[in-house]
Write a structure and sequence with these properties.
The protein is mainly beta. It is 5% helix and 40% strand. The strands form two sheets. Strands 1, 2, 3, 4 and 9 form a five-stranded antiparallel sheet that branches. Strands 5-8-7-6 form a four-stranded antiparallel sheet, with no helix packed on it.
Amino acid sequence: MIIKKGNKLKVDYEGSFDDGTVFDSSKHGDHSHPLEFEVGSGHVIPGFENAVIGMKKGEEKKVVIEAKEAYGERREELIREFPLTALPKDDRIKEGSILMLGNPQGQGFPCVVKKLTADKAIIDLNHPLAGKKLHFKIKLIEVN
């Protein structure tokens, strides 16, 4: 069976940057299990969905996904200032921390604390992987 939109898949993957640093893997870290998704549902980045179309069960491939097909280009207008009172009270929040904020639709998204002062925080609302070219090793392990 050749993969097309509408297929439900399980894949193992490893994502890395140009320098080879691994940023995510289905076998290590938070995930430690295959990624499951429906092709065309929008639950994974567009470049990843496009990469699996045409694959067959058991096939492995390496792909490079440009920023525009991954998490988009960085946008400077998404660096915003917030009063500290708008952030969760947590002593672990510091410059460089990744916070999960919610949008009006109730979905969470990661953002980075760029700077803290006595009364405000500069937050980068760009996805931490925005503007980056991503390399993936993908293995298709199951098709439904």
